Amino acid sequence: MADRPAHHIDSRSSDEKEDKVAVGTTDAPFHSEPELGYTRQEAADAHELTGGFSDINSGFDEQEIKRVRTRIDRRLLPILGALYSIALIDRTNLSAARIAGAEKDLKLNVGQNYTIATLIFFVPYIIFEMPSNLLLRKIGPAKQLSAIATLWGIVMMAQGFVKDWKQLVVTRFFTGLLEAGFFPACVLLVSCFYVRRESQVRMSAFYLVSVGFSGFSNIIAYGISKMNGLGGLAGWRWIFIMEGLATIVLGVSAYWLIIDFPDRAVETGFLKPEERDLILTRIQRDRGDAEADPLTMAKLRKYALDIKPWIYGIMFMNTTLPTYAYAFFLPVILRGMGYSIRDTFLLGAAPYCVAMVMAFGFALISDRFFTRIPVIVTQCLLTIVGLAMLFDTTNKNVMLAGAFLGVSGANGNIPAILNFSQNNIVGQSKRSFVSVVVVSFGGIGGIFASCVYQSKDAPLYRPGLYATMACQAFNVVACLCFAIYFSWANKKVREGKKVVEGKPGFTYTI
To answer: Where in the sequence of the chain do the CATH 1.20.1250.20 domains occur?
Structure first.
């Protein structure tokens, strides 16, 4: 069995072939043609003996695996990275517009106007994530992601024509509603193509590319703001209009670029049947959930009773808090340090470029040594140190260095925690549920940032910094608790005394 590739067609009798099924399923094979070539018992034994990973490439040519994986990398990751880049820019460009003139024109410096405008985005963002993700397989990734990106681009353009802060709040609400289904869908789609040991680099690639590009958003915004007066419009209005137009163009293009889930990618012409079966069999051997299963209310209730997804969500909230804080308030902090508007825009991009390199380096280490928790803890500590350095108001260089460390640690932990949560669950329906829960808590992190970083605390926002540091400390403690429990559980699994995630032989990734 170990030497027989997944797409091998054997010559056994029809009675024997009727027993061929996907690992972890009960009745049907992945596809009727070509057959996988494994009996139910063979597949189950393989998964238990390999512990979910060590023998996943058995029977396949290593060069063929690399070729298929590279082809997926080149097609899937760039478009998701580009779309998420524009999503990050669109949801955080309010800070750039603020210092480019919107603060005065829309009275964003009055009371809680700016806080409300930043906070309102996350209300529909949280509420509509689950419904949107439930529709993903029915509608298809290309149609759904392309449509919502195009629509939020239209709303972003409309934001350039608002007359007061109340109208701004309305456009921010609809932007949040439309972006709600995007990021969890990307997380789910990426996780369905790669085995666990390959996923950290890929998750980081599409996210960190977007971080790098969005880091230049302040420079782009500064350049666009120089259109001030063109068509009788203020420069800050052109920021919204031009970036909204770019979103529409990219959203329309995404329809032809985004690929479907691997089990349906043959129908769309992206994969050959043997390539599809290579992907699905490796995933099946690794974690036993290549077969799609619908998310029912019974499953939803069962998954909701598991405490782990909620802890993953809290950890994600705690790491999105500093990323949103830096996105919304770093330009204001830099301005408060005495930098000019031009230098504020230029310096605001540099930490994100460094973050992209540092975090991707940590992702390579994480996949190379198949470890998650040590990397998350290290990046939490970097974030804490970076935030602490912002308190040194006597030395601008120390404060600026702190921004570099904080932005790097916080943004590196976004894909790290997402991947950690996806690595330690089995079943596509649960994978979908967990991605929504985790990303929803990320939206709560945005609300948290909007509330604890208040205008009255400008320019250093000390209460917000204290709260953010405390959240990183929580993540460190949570990681230590997970490490202890997962190590114990894995030991019991290897002794044959425990089954985790309902899958014999499956072990947690630590």
So the answer is: 62-273+293-494
Q: Read off the tokens for 437.
A: 């829960």
At which residue do the structure tokens 């630590």 appear?
Answer: 510
Each residue of 433-456: pLDDT tens digit?
998 899 899 889 888 887 888 777
Token pair listed for 393: 């108001």
Q: What share of the chain is helix, strand, coil (3-state, %, to 5)?
A: 75, 0, 25
CB 47 within 8 A of CB 285: yes
pTM: 0.79
Per-residue pLDDT reduced to its tens digit, 24-57: 333 333 333 333 333 334 334 434 434 444 478 8
209-148-195 Cα angle (round to 5): 50
SS3 20: strand
Instruction: Tell me the C-alpha distance between 92 and 123, whole Å.
Output: 15
> Rounded to an integer, what distance in angstroms lies between the CA atom of residue 263 and that of residue 480?
37
CB 221 within 8 A of CB 100: yes
Class of domain 62-273+293-494: mainly alpha
Which residue, chain included where needed, has tokens 């425990």?
498
